[in-house]
């Protein structure tokens, strides 16, 4: 997840108690949030929010989007869910609302600064922007700049400054025929870039969710039991 760390508490947590406290905060401050996601996971977001919280939410998509937009402007909802495409179609309407934060799923979709989807996302008025992605960098360093410049505008300078200060020396150091000087410079610049971005990231690492993962011993025991069962069945049939 990327965005300003101080706004991390605005992201719903997977805990009933935590959700309740955040819900009370939303009601108290009259907050309203926008969640943008691909259509393929739009209703997954709705289902999870309904499972873990008591939010007044709506889906801005499909035949009812105009009706729901009217109710949204009337302050009937606390969370609005929409897709990238619907956001493009309804940008003016959605910009008429003072959003407390916008959360964007699969934010790597705005990796191209010239793409229409990127232009629309940058035109959405909201000071607090939070992006979720597992692949912030797919092909080149400029993609990283584009996503970060949406989340925290200007945090890495403009595109030209980013290329000169970070992208070019890092890519030079990654070439198979890089000189020792280029390699050392590339590593140093990468360390500086990592340090600069560290306050803007919240990473969901294996260490954070280790308690939710099955233990290796448990899996081993399971397969051992399966193998013993198969062996017993084979022996029984052989008789």
Automatic annotation (TrEMBL):
Keyword Hydrolase in record: yes
Pfam families cross-referenced by the UniProt entry: SNF2-rel_dom (PF00176)
InterPro entries (UniProt xref): Helicase_ATP-bd (IPR014001), P-loop_NTPase (IPR027417), SNF2-like_sf (IPR038718), SNF2_N (IPR000330), SNF2_RAD54_helicase_repair (IPR050496)
Keywords, sorted A to Z: ATP-binding, Helicase, Hydrolase, Membrane, Nucleotide-binding, Transmembrane, Transmembrane helix
Domain Helicase ATP-binding: 1-154
Record-annotated membrane-spanning stretches: 25-45
Superkingdom of the organism of origin: Eukaryota
PANTHER family, per database record: DNA EXCISION REPAIR PROTEIN ERCC-6-RELATED, SNF2/RAD54 FAMILY MEMBER
Name listed for the protein in its UniProt record: Helicase ATP-binding domain-containing protein
Native source organism of the sequence: Ranitomeya imitator
